[in-house]
Amino acid sequence: MADELPAARGQGSGSGYAAYSYLTAGEDFRQFELAPQFGRVPAYAAGLSAEQQQRAGRLLTDLMVISLHDHPVRFPLRMEETPEYNRTGRQHAAYAGLAASGMTVVFDNLMDGTACVTGNAPWRWDDVITDLGMRQADLAHQRDVMTIRTIADIDEAHRDRRVGLVFGLEAATPIENELDRLDVLYGLGLRQIGIAYSDANALTALDVCRHSDKPVFLTHAGARAVWNTSRMKPDHVLRAVAETGGVIGMSAAPHTTLSAGHPRHTIESVMDHFRYCADLVGIDHVGFGPDTLYGDHVKLHTIFAKLLSLGATRGPSFEPVRYVDGLENPTENFANITGWLVSHGFGDEEIRAVLGGNIYRALQGIWVSLPPQARAGMANQGQHESDRGEHAYRHRDHEHPSGGGP
Prior knowledge:
Structural class: alpha/beta
Order of helices and strands: HEEHEHEHEHEHEHEHEHEHHHHE
Oligomer: single chain
CATH topology: TIM Barrel
CATH superfamily: Metal-dependent hydrolases
Radius of gyration: 20 Å
Helix content: 25-40%
Number of strands: 11
Number of helices: 13
Largest sheet: 5 strands, parallel
């Protein structure tokens, strides 16, 4: 984490709650030594002046900050234990790390393609439901991190300086041919779902944009013109997403968003994609979906290479890294992104837009609210104000598409 930037949003380390501490580790579930939430790798040297440091800290504290894609959980310190860890059904949320991250909202994509709870293949319906239910059961035992289901929830998290999790899936695979399962997932708190796992081709992405009458998210990707691999998206796809009113989230998963100018993967490589996309489609259609976690992400890719379809990363030669300097985990990401934007001359309004404002705007056009009269009627029946029937994806054959690779 950038040691030059102050702790964000006045959150500190939160209440001190540790994941699943309402149970007895070793008796109620198998215990693993987990990766630390702080200090796993050396802090990124941002090189900010005192004035830049002060401004970046203020912006990170005051603004609504939204990650369009991350995995804010702790993996085993010995990453090879991850398959057995996931079989417990209990990935441990990094509560202290989240409290210090400066984020308002995280699109939390759960176990994704590593969700092998009851077998050796991912995306089983029962495994997805187990993962979603376990995480929310744990959340219910603390108050620093909340579940986001509506725009009003985002507003509450920002106002109360809490962190909100939007639960999502990277693929619609678990619904199989049962469209009713979309309603089941919505009822269980899911608010984002991808069309297909791994890297949908350009035609699929264009079809999604053409058929959707709502903004489309490309949750975690980059520009093929910057780094020529199939995982990166060509210009016409990036433009099509922007034309829906959607947002392109910059990914930082190891060895993905590299660039010719920075073939050793660091925050500088990622920001090359950011600048290219902002120039191509406008700054109102870019954001960040770093796709980070707590643990050795590079080794995770090695262990799950087949399930995560990592052949898509083949392309120009590059220098392998142990971690992406500056964007290694959800705690440090936005402090370093904000510092980079400040040091490269971006204005406050531009920073507000890309840190979360663009995503918030798009969500207002996606999560549809009931009309005021209907909400009033519900309130008169004693239902809670925040229960507004807002959908992250639309009902039945009008489900909202979102995209991006693993």
